[in-house]
Amino acid sequence: MNEVAERFLRNVRNNGVRVTRERRRVVETISRHPGHFDAESLYARMTAEGARVSRATVYRTLSTLVECGVLRRHDVGERQALFEASIGRRHHEHMICVVCGTILEFVEDRIERLQDDVCRRYGFRPLSHALHIHGVCSSCEDVARRTSPTSTPEPATPPSSDGAAALRRG
Amino acid sequence: MNEVAERFLRNVRNNGVRVTRERRRVVETISRHPGHFDAESLYARMTAEGARVSRATVYRTLSTLVECGVLRRHDVGERQALFEASIGRRHHEHMICVVCGTILEFVEDRIERLQDDVCRRYGFRPLSHALHIHGVCSSCEDVARRTSPTSTPEPATPPSSDGAAALRRG
DNA sequence: TGTAGATTGAGACTCGGTCTCAACACGAGG
DNA sequence: CCTCGTGTTGAGACCGAGTCTCAATCTACA
């Protein structure tokens, strides 16, 4: 059990939630593979690694971990939700490449401040926010430029539909 | 057939897409009921109004209209997609009240500019973006303050899950 | 008006995710 | 360490949003 996993479980226990064998296993697997992931591939990875855990438990544990504040959930695009460890990480936004599915993260305090301004103007009390920029990352842009140097490269389908497909790969 | 519907159809035809009875009917229904809507309730409304149109056609037509640029699609939260007419409207962002489901729109050029800055820094070519702020709108805040003036009102469940539920109502 | 090819409809299907409920196991209290 | 209340699990049925199939139909161009 690595340190990240222990921090996860401490946080879970502090929320009055029982630490079961299955939850430990979920947390361990997540902490061994940092980055964004979806529920289904986590489940696949766990069963591939020999864990006897049910799909329902994986989905339930992910929700629990989000509630305990150790995981963040991102609804990016039209497909399945993505999760990401949030312990020890500050809030950030995402750029999603619609070609290769890469997710770039960025922090921009000035955007956050402008959001607060807007909320104040509207008397809206913000609880959470998400900023997703869909587009083409620099390396995919390079590839496209090399293969067809005359025309501006464009993804096959609009970002709204292809973005999610790309994300599944990521 | 009102003016908005005609503009829709002109745009559709310009995209080399056939104008069928069903598509006309979809466009008419949308243009008679402005605001955000989801595919299922549009289908329900159409059949309730006596249109003989299939669910598949409604979904297909919505995708077509998005491709033709007359509709925008928003993946807000974990449930179904929302659509919104985009003709004659400039790009805007959304604040979603997790209590009553109201969707507030706002425009903030400075945020757009900062996004462009970030993209430039990362060599990322942006195609589209979405900024969603989940929180509590002023009137829900007022209601909560009246009913329990001692404690800061808080929605029952975190915005990530309740936001979508609220949206379904909206 | 004829015709090629786009579009439709009914319903099966997919996919991400949730629910059910009996069996099980965590952990507080003794 | 043991007991017991109750939170948790697993298998698979179920759900809801959305897509696919393919024969029949319709649009729009010539």
Characteristics:
homodimer, 170 residues, 3-stranded antiparallel sheet, 3-stranded mixed sheet, 7 helices, 6 strands, 18% strand, DNA-binding
Q: What does the secondary structure layout of this molecule look like, with pairings?
A:
Two copies of one chain form a homodimer.
Chain A (H helix, E strand, L loop, with lengths): L2 H12 L6 H12 L4 E2 H10 L6 H13 L3 E4 L7 E4 L7 E5 L5 E4 L2 H14 L2 E12 L1 H10 L11 H11 L1
Chain A binds a DNA duplex (30 and 30 nucleotides) through helix 2 and helix 4.
Please report the number of helical segments of chain A: 7
Structural class of chain A: alpha+beta
Order of helices and strands of chain A: HHEHHEEEEHEHH
Please tell me the overall pLDDT of chain A.
83
Strand content of chain A: 15-25%
Oligomer: homodimer
Description:
The structure is a homodimer of 170-residue chains. Chain A is of the alpha+beta class. Chain A has 7 helices and 6 strands. Chain A has helices at 3-14, 21-32, 39-48, 55-67, 109-122, 138-147, 159-169; strands at 37-38, 71-74, 82-85, 93-97, 103-106, 125-136. In chain A, the strands form 2 sheets. A 3-stranded antiparallel sheet of chain A has the order 1-3-2. A 3-stranded mixed sheet of chain A has the order 5-4-6, with helices on both faces. In chain A, strand 2 (71-74) and strand 3 (82-85) form a beta hairpin. Chain A is globular. At the A-B interface, helix 4, helix 5, strand 6 and helix 7 of A face helix 4, helix 5, strand 6 and helix 7 of B. Chain A binds a DNA duplex (30 and 30 nucleotides) through residues 17-23, 38-40, 52-57, 59-60, 78-81.
